[in-house]
Every structure is written in structure tokens, then in C-alpha cells.
Amino acid sequence: MNLLEIETLTVLHRADGVETKLVHDLSYSVAAGETLAIVGESGSGKSLSALAIMGLLSPDLQIVSGSIRMDGTDMLDLTPEQMRKKRGRDVSMVFQEPMTSLNPVRTIGSQITESIEENLGLSKSDARARAISLLDQVGVADAERRLRQYPHHFSGGMRQRVMIAIALAATPKLIIADEPTTALDVTIQAQILDMMAEICRAQKTSLILITHNLGIVARYANRVNVMYGGRIVETGTAAEIYYTPHHPYTHGLLRSVPQLTQSRKEPLQPIMGNPADPFTKIAGCRFHPRCQFAQDRCRREMPQFDGKTACHFPLVSETREAS
Questions:
Q1: Would you tell me the crossing angle of helices 124-137 and 156-168 to the nearest 10 degrees?
Q2: Helix runs in 27-170, H state only
Q3: In the Cβ-directed half-sphere of 271, how many Cα atoms lie within 13 Å?
Q4: pTM of the full predicted structure?
Q5: How far apart are CA 120 and CA 81, in angstroms?
Q6: Considering only CA atoms, which of 38, 90, 29 is closest in space to residue 230?
Q7: Mean pLDDT, to the nearest integer, of 299-311?
Q8: CA–CA separation, 292 vs 316, rounded Å?
Q9: Rounded to an integer, what distance in angstroms lies between the CA atom of residue 309 and that of residue 71?
Q10: Which DSSP category does 283 fall into?
Q11: Count of Cβ atoms closer than 10 Å to residue 276 Cβ
Q12: What is the per-residue burial (b if ≥16 Cβ within 10 Å, else e) of 16-34?
């Protein structure tokens, strides 16, 4: 059973009389207890679509079509007050940089208990007890003392643990983690992600993991959506994406990742060019200026997503191996 269903979601940017589509006809679902990874370079629409789910788009952005259904309720039909209650209680988000998400002049304890009191209706003493339990759960030692401290007293990894504790406060059905370990070193990254995955499994919480790190995808995700230019260009299980990618963009992402079996002298093979600028019009497939397999049709026509990939000439294993 699907917990979240997004259908043909389109997000428009308006500024100085100019309208630009930043997310195009986005459709995907997340099952109860599933971990879905959304992968792509900066500007691909990953974070923007997540903010649309949360109802946190800035005033210059507008959802002009589509639906976002959670447990059968279209969240786009909710009033601002209803949506505010939905956030935290049913769906929470862990942002990329906790220092910009946490209030620097309020204690950690007050920020966690505020969410608990608001969403669960607990008394201050019960909310404090739950806050201590949450900090213990996410691996913050001496939780009772740490509640009285401020964000600047915590390291980057510990601040991210606090953000996860806030996201878990009301035991939501869905957590969206937007690049939750980008600013952390590799060892701390693994600790944070292992902890988050274990908590989600234990609580049967669904997780949308937004990342550009394909190594994270292989270890934690059940399914993967690859986004480029505001669209999903390929979807599949983690194994399918890794071993039989069909879109040239997915293929390029995989080739640019260092391999343990690769010689240190062997150069990486990055995707040529720059990510598509959403404010620049490109005829046909938006990836064709960077695609080594592009043909004339790619320059004329936008490929339609067939449920697996959006490419006029999807790759086969022989093509990948030869490249």
C-alpha cells in the first residue's frame, strides 16, 4: 500500500513577469515502510519537489497542476492551518544544514519539546521526558544536560542528530531527508545514515532520501528515482539502477563515481558540460547537450517517461560496456 502518491506535479517560478517550470509533471509513490532515494545534480528539482510535499515553497514558486496524496488525502487541498498540523505529525523533514534550521538563540531542549507539545499535546514535563528519550535514541550522550545547551555547543554531526530527533518527535509516517550528511565527514555520514535507517525500520517509517551520492543509494534505498532538469529520467530498484541503467545520465553518474577496483592513476569520467539551467530553454531532451549518445531526434523532441526511463534511445548492456 502506498503512503504517498504524487501525480503530474508541476512547480512554476514567477519573477519579473517571466514564468519558468522548475518541476515538470513529476509522478512517483512511496510505500509504507519503504526507503526511496531521489538522485541528481544540483538544480534537478530534488529539493524543490520535497518542499512542495511539505508545503514550504517560497512565494515566487507555485504548484500549478498535479496532486500530492498522503493516506488518500490531497495535501494541496488542505488549508495552511491543516497543513501546519500535518507537518511534524505525519511528515517531517531533515534539512541539509542543521545550523541554518536550528534557532541559534534557543536551547536544543526548547526546540525539541516545542514540536512534541504542538503535535502530541503532551505536558511540559512529559514533553521533556520524550525529548531526553529521543536524544538517547539518536545517540546524543548525557541527553538531560544537553537539552539546556544551544546549537553552537554541538558539532555538525551532533546537530544533525538533533534535527533527526525533532523530525522523529511525533513519530511521523514519512521522513524526508534532504542531503542530511553533505557537510559531514565520511565516518560521521555512515553513523548518521545507519542510525536513521535503523530507526525507520524499527518504527516502520517511510523515508525519502535526497542525495547526489550514489554510494548512499546502494546501501540504504529500496528504489531510486533519478532526476534531471526537473523531471524523473529513470526509476528502478537500487540493483536495477546500479547494474542495468538505461538512461545516459544515470550511466554518466555511475561512471563518475570512484571504484575500489579502479587504479589510482586511472582518471574519473565525469559527465561533460554543466547541469541544465532551468531558466534556459533547450529544445528536445534537456540532457542532449551533455549526452554522448544524442541523435537528431533528441535535439527535436522531449522524450516521454514510459514508467522506466525517459529516453528516445535507452542504453543496453552492450552499449554501456563498449563505452
A1: 130
A2: 46-54, 80-89, 98-101, 108-120, 124-137, 143-146, 156-168
A3: 21
A4: 0.91
A5: 16
A6: 38
A7: 96
A8: 14
A9: 27
A10: S
A11: 21
A12: eeeeebbbbbbbbebeebb
Tens digit of pLDDT for each residue in 66-123? 999 999 999 999 999 999 989 988 999 998 877 788 999 999 999 999 989 988 889 9
The span from the CA of 64 to the CA of 43, in Å, is 19
**In sequence order, what are the beta bridge partners of 227?**
232
- Tens digits of residue pLDDT in 150-193: 999 999 889 999 999 999 988 899 999 998 887 778 888 888 88
Residue with cell 512554476: 12
Does residue 321 register a pLDDT over 60?
Answer: no
What H or E segment, with its residue span, contains residue 31?
Answer: strand 18-31
Pull the grid cell for residue 243: 547494474
284 DSSP assignment: S
Closest CA to 313 of 291, 283, 289: 291
The conformation of residue 208, written as its DSSP 8-state character, comes to: E
Q: Round to whole Å and give the CA distance between 195 and 207.
A: 13
